[in-house]
Design a protein that fits this description.
The protein is α+β, with helices and mostly antiparallel strands and 713 residues long. Among the domains are: 16-174, Galactose-binding lectin (Jelly Rolls), CATH 2.60.120; 451-712, Beta-galactosidase, Chain A, domain 5, CATH 2.70.98.70. Strands 24-25-26-27-36-31-30-29 form an 8-stranded antiparallel beta sheet, with no helix packed on it. Strands 1, 5, 6, 8, 11 and 13 form a 6-stranded antiparallel beta sheet that branches. Strand 18 (479-483) and strand 19 (488-495) form a beta hairpin. Helix 8 packs antiparallel against helix 9 and helix 10 (355-368) runs antiparallel to helix 11 (376-395). It starts with 15 loop residues before the first strand and ends with a strand.
Length: 713
Amino acid sequence: MTLFFSDTNSYLTDNYCYQLWGYAKQNNTETNTFQGGKYFDRSNFIGHYVTTSLEDSLCFQFSGELGSYQINFDLNKAYLVQGLLFNLRLDDWEEISYLALGFTDEHGFAHVKVENPSQGLQIPVDLNFESLAWKLYQTHNVANINDIRIYLRGKPGLKGASIKLYEIGYIESIKVLETAENTHLSDSTSTSLFEYLKYIFPNYHNQAKIFLASGKCPLINNVNIEWDEQHVKPIFEDENNTLRYSWFALHPALILLLDYHYHDNNNALQAAFDIFLHWYNESFIKPELDIKYNWYDHGVSERQIATILLKQALIRADQLPTNRLKKLDYVIRQQGELLASEVFYCRDQVDRYHNHGCFQDLALLISSALNIKGKKELFWSKVALTRLEDQITNIVYQVPNYAISLENSLGYQYVLYRILDMFAGILFDNKKFSEIPLIARGMKNFLRLYKYPNGELPAFGDTFKYHMDDIEPLPFNSGVYNFTEAGYVLLKELFYQKEFYFAFFATSLGKVHKHQDNLSFTLFFDGVEWFNDPSFYSHEYSDDVPKYLRSANAHNNVVVLDRDYDLSAGTASISNVHSGDAKFHVSASHSCYKHIEVKRDVDVCYNNASLLISDVVKRLKRSIKNQPYIVFQLGIGVEASHQNREIKLTHPSTNFTLVIEMNSENFQIVKGREKSSPFHGISGERFLQTKDTICIVHPIQFEKKIETKISIR
């Protein structure tokens, strides 16, 4: 897979004049020059590596465990430049912390970082010194340079690793593009966008009314926040991070644009432009102190969409004089180039493969759909679609009829489904990408499969408890739905003519949005979630409540107290799933606690509507003294009473009772938050909302098999 065809016009640059210092493709036998460039001369390169001339590139091969690797390109003389161009490829690196590209100046190494570079893909990097990608790191508008430096911090694979260099060039001059004509999105793209946004902001109409009446700023998660006129922004740097992101993503403008679109509210449209103009003046033209969230990867994507939709709405309302158009077009162009830049791709994430990358690709593709004059938009489209294809390969697991996000969250499964559904709407007539609608449909089917009859999903991973009214449950069919490799197993059965769901989790293909929940489960019966996944509170993961809800202590699993929990890929697996006439069985294990193996077997007996859970915790080092526990987190509204070893579970909405037969009487029932205990009965519900529940805690011994029986009566 290549990001574009490797030729000397690969940058598709229409707003500056550039020259090549060197290139490697042997496609011209009559001359060795193109626009002043020449074939790479190896004598200009300085560093510790082996070089090989390939047909289309110069290959630098690295090995060993130095930790950092460099290529220095001596230019032999000084050049006055307004930017740099790189075209390279990385292969066979076991680890990459970052790739740095730049030059030496009087202060040292002037560079930008590519935080999550791709491997196996040709990477074009355009470092226009007027671009946002460069300005996020450096202040040069022009530079007098004598060398080029490529620096990689990482670890080569066992057989070595390489950097392939196709082209290095520089920007001589930059021209200001003419203001674009009043181009617009297609009706299908616009409709798809507003339908998508309506699901992100379901209460947009009420939020817009509150803002227009009282000035309370509308933000994500149905929040309207006070905005004191004395303050430039309604949020501060010590505010909740989600609200900071929401402000800088121009969510207030999106909410108001929804109200204009669906209710023809011209006051909302004017207010949306005022919000944009406020951000433009205070955080774009002026330096913004909250750099992280003003230039947060996901936030920039949504701000780009807001800016484009605002332009479309103003055209429709005949309210787009030249001064407004210039501001909007300048932001669209600048942010488009930033979203296309490898420097910015998933910049704020630990890993390249993340739903934020899909958001960037979506915003970039929509930007290219504007058909603004120039070749750059064609390049944007190619970048967006190639990166999206790469994302899908790495974050979606596909089986017949279903597609599963590997981000360990049914909530983010829904987010990714919505993104891909948007792509499908934009690309509906593009046969090359006909698989995207199929993947989107498979992701929706998986959500429909897991959705409870009461409209909720198991709140697995970073998932709020909320109804997804646009996702209808699949018709109920008894059976086992086995997605072992992705870490999901679901049993659906009828007990006493009532629908029974048992969902078991051991996801271990990545750690994005993952909780410490391996071998945990949820259980739904007769309209009640009896055993609960504790959901999620906010993205402030180090704060007390979200930290607890993400911990093993908050799930239906085995806990080894005060021991680190490793979420690395490959630490959990489901080894056996089968179902016969008498029972369903699942076996799984994990090694998330260092030098400890946790094994769990679950049998669901059909003839007596019961579960038998068998747990064994084995130490690989006898010196380990941490205390292991079995923990059960009960659903919201479930009550518990006990007599001897039996715990009776009831709920006011059903006449059924579930009975837990513990291994001994040495257990504790914790109701709500217990200051003296590391275990709490608490469940997240919606953004910054929790409800008290009941937690059952049973200390166990290492190396001893413990059986717990749960019966429906």
